[in-house]
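Researcher: Go.
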Amino acid sequence: MHIGLRKDANTVKMKQKKPLRINIKPLKGRKWKLIHIFFPEANLETMFLTFGRNIYCALDITKDLLVHERVHIVQQKNSYLWAIWWWIRYIKSPKFRYEQELEAYRAQYRYLCKENKDRNMRNSVLREIATTLSGPMYNRLVSFEQAMMDVRSE
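Model: Structure:
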């Protein structure tokens, strides 16, 4: 899979006829504090949120996180209208939330493994992802062991 970021615009290409247009915007303002209603453990200083074609973040986004968030843009069909539907399901359905995050974390993990062949680094990344997926950020939807197996499987 080829991933490229054009310098003249925030556009990511991944074997598609038409590249996705991605906007990276700062995560600031009172409206985002509402996320704590549904995810009390969320840390807005380190969180990345995708809505339609926008990625909102307080930090610089790394290539692996861009891969992760790009999956959410595709899941939301690069559309603000679909993003509303997606977010309603994401908040209301733990199963849907886990499926969506698992797909994004798998893509992120594959990207990181492709970039680094060190077995110890890969294991460390897998453990970090499994800790996040099984942790408070996602309301402890699965066990750590289950998250490890799910991320590794296709």
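Model: The chain has one domain: 4-152.
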